[in-house]
Amino acid sequence: MRFGRQQWSTASLLILMVKVISGHTLKCQPAEYQIRDECCPLCPAGSRVKTDCKVDRSTSCLPCLSGTYMDHPTGLKKCLICTNCDKGSGLKTKKPCTITSDTVCEPLEGFYCAKSSDNDCDVAKKHRSCEPGQYISKKVMEPSQMDHLHPVDHTHSVNQTFRC
To answer: Which keywords does this Swiss-Prot/TrEMBL entry list (predicted)?
Structure first.
């Protein structure tokens, strides 16, 4: 009877080890992506995966279509959609989208960048106007930081409004 129990314990341990080993995750290289139990080569920036690799063939890639981009090597099947710099939101295109980079936006004249990331303006807000007879003493990003001063030389028209 003791022999049977030890045999059962050994078998249980063996089953447990097999489950742990078989549950071991595949570790792909940085230039690869995992699909099922295979490591496939990534597609280069500016393209996307058409078909995943298999034992007998490598990853097949397609270039991104107009209006889409991929700025890094990828295992994705779709390229990312280019950002639209919306004039109604006070933005204009600084640098157009290419297959390897997203659109870069900047504020329209009379607007300032209220939220930015990576040299790109995400949110623009309209500058307030100075009161007649005032001028901008220094240029800053936030309109709340602008100093409105009365001109000392009286060269500004009292009826003219200047952008802040």
So the answer is: Disulfide bond, Glycoprotein, Host-virus interaction, Membrane, Phosphoprotein, Receptor, Repeat, Signal, Transmembrane, Transmembrane helix
State which amino acid sits at residue 135. Answer: Y
Domains and CATH numbers, the chain: 26-81 (2.10.50.10), 83-127 (2.10.50.10)
Give residue 90's pLDDT.
94
- Asked whether 76 and 49 are in contact (CB, 8 A), the reply is yes
- The tokens for 101 are 């980079």
For residue 116, pLDDT beyond 70 = yes
Q: Does residue 89 surpass a pLDDT of 80?
A: yes
Main-chain dihedrals φ then ψ at residue 5, nearest 5 degrees: -65, -45
